[in-house]
TrEMBL record:
It comes from Spirosoma foliorum. Pfam families: ALO, FAD_binding_4. InterPro entries: ALO_C, FAD-bd_PCMH, FAD-bd_PCMH-like_sf, FAD-bd_PCMH_sub1, FAD-bd_PCMH_sub2, FAD_lactone_oxidase-like, Oxid_FAD_bind_N, Vanillyl_alc_oxidase_C-sub2. The lineage of its organism: Bacteria, Pseudomonadati, Bacteroidota, Cytophagia, Cytophagales. Coiled coil: none annotated. This is FAD-binding protein.
């Protein structure tokens, strides 16, 4: 969002009655997502400062959706009727140092929570590349970081509080609710309004980040597992040109007797001599510190610093998950399309994520490789390339990221989620009248 728009929206939030729509700013600045590529279908945006106010809004309107930090590139959070914001409900509620959990308001951002935890001597197991995203939104869409032994951000969820379509408050926990909990954590906004999340935490730790340039693609073919296992979290960036990986980002925990040995060469790649941005043409000033400089976990796990515009700002994003056992085959399949991809691409990031047991997670029951595309903001061109990529990845039954752009036919998408029929049944239980359904869910979960 542009600074001018943000200031207008902030002023409107402060000046508007609690349950009145925030429409005064919309005359010249329509409500859009973070990247500006998606315009929401209504200007009826309501705010809630408390759970009773959430309940009141849910009971009042027959159709509504929750709008968070707006980092999705598609209509998963859109509504043509009513939108609700919980943006002011972003506090830490409790820290349990004995069982190692923290409970927070669901719209708290990771970039807000992380420094608080670190000061208390704790950490999260992982972070996404952007610390700007909300905890509830990230978990609802199975957003992730990287690491062969690291599950996505949802795997840290120990409990969640949700307001259902009837306005009832329910609490679900890993310890007590079994399959219902595993169904609800990655919920796609289809079950209700999540108001609180309890996350697993661990003792704080220090990290370093080392970057290597120009890894030959042939080396990745031969040594994929060794390369992606070289650090606690490893990201590979490529423009699909010159049969190489442009940059390898290795994030390592600094532990007594064990740390990353930053040699001048890494499988044919050369160690960088300065901080780099994943997109070579852009300045690294917005990026987290590299060059092996030690720092807190939350200042190394993300690629981008909280106080700056992440990534490039004006962009489109797509991402596909394939089984890690097929990672090299999938990478080579996409590489064949380089002449079609490269003209429209800013950068691709390759990351590994461990398996989980959440019904609607792209990593359900499979350790995965995520192939992420940051595109130039030219949807007409990108829309032509995505079907080509999806066709090449079809043998691996690739699952797209729920919050990013894809063109996969609904029937194909549905066939890749074995628990989808049961998830639909849970939707009927929590939301019998379809209060939280929208065009995105109707098309992708129910369409043919």
């Amino acid at each position: 969002m542009k600074k001018r728009t943000f200031l207008k929206l902030s002023s409107a939030l402060m000046a508007t009655p609690i349950l009145a729509p925030l429409t005064s700013w919309a005359a010249d600045d329509k409500l859009k997502n973070w990247a500006g590529n998606y315009q929401y279908s209504t200007d009826k945006l309501y705010k809630a400062k408390s759970i009773p106010q959430v309940q009141e809004l849910v009971k009042k309107y027959p159709k509504l959706k929750v709008l968070g930090t707006r980092h999705c590139f598609n209509g998963i959070a859109d509504s043509k009727d009513n939108l609700i914001s919980l943006g002011e409900m972003d506090d830490v509620i409790s820290l349990d140092t004995k069982v190692h959990t923290v409970t927070v308001d669901a719209t708290m951002k990771y970039g807000q929570l992380a420094p608080y935890l670190d000061k208390k001597g704790f950490a999260l197991h992982n972070l996404a590349s952007l610390p700007h995203i909300s905890i509830a939104g990230a978990c609802a869409t199975a957003t992730h970081g990287s690491g062969v032994k690291n599950g996505n951000l949802s795997t840290a969820v120990a409990a969640m509080e949700i307001v259902t379509a009837k306005g009832e408050v329910r609490t679900l926990s890993r310890a007590k609710d079994g399959e219902t909990f595993r169904a609800a954590v990655v919920h796609l906004g289809a079950l209700g309004v999540v108001t609180k999340v309890t996350l697993d935490i661990q003792p704080t730790f220090m990290m370093r980040q080392d970057v290597y340039e120009n890894l030959p693609l042939a080396q990745l073919q031969q040594h994929f597992e060794a390369i992606v296992s070289a650090g606690y979290s490893v990201s590979l960036f490529t423009d699909w040109q010159k049969k190489r990986i442009n940059e390898v980002w290795i994030k390592s925990r600094i532990e007594k007797g064990k740390t990353f040995d930053a040699k001048p060469e890494f499988y044919g790649a050369k160690r960088a001599t300065k901080n780099l941005h994943p997109i070579a043409e852009l300045s690294a000033v917005n990026c987290t510190e590299q060059m092996g400089v030690p720092g807190p976990w939350y200042e190394r796990l993300p690629h981008f610093r909280m106080g700056f515009t992440p990534s490039s700002g004006k962009e489109l994003q797509s991402e596909y998950f394939v089984p890690r056992k097929n990672a090299v085959e999938a990478i080579l399949a996409v590489e064949k399309l380089n002449a079609h991809i490269s003209p429209h691409l800013m950068i691709t990031e390759l990351r590994t994520i461990d398996a989980d047991n959440f019904w609607m997670s792209p990593c359900y029951k499979q350790p995965s490789l995520a192939i992420h595309f940051t595109w130039k903001q030219d949807w007409a061109s990108v829309k032509k390339v995505l079907p080509m990529i999806e066709k090449e990845l079809a043998p691996f039954k690739a699952r797209p990221h729920w919050g990013k752009l894809f063109t996969l036919a609904p029937a194909q998408l549905q066939s890749r989620y074995e628990k989808l029929p049961e998830f639909k049944q849970l939707m009927k239980e929590y939301d019998p009248q379809g209060k939280f359904r929208n065009a995105f869910l109707d098309t992708n979960l129910f369409g043919s």
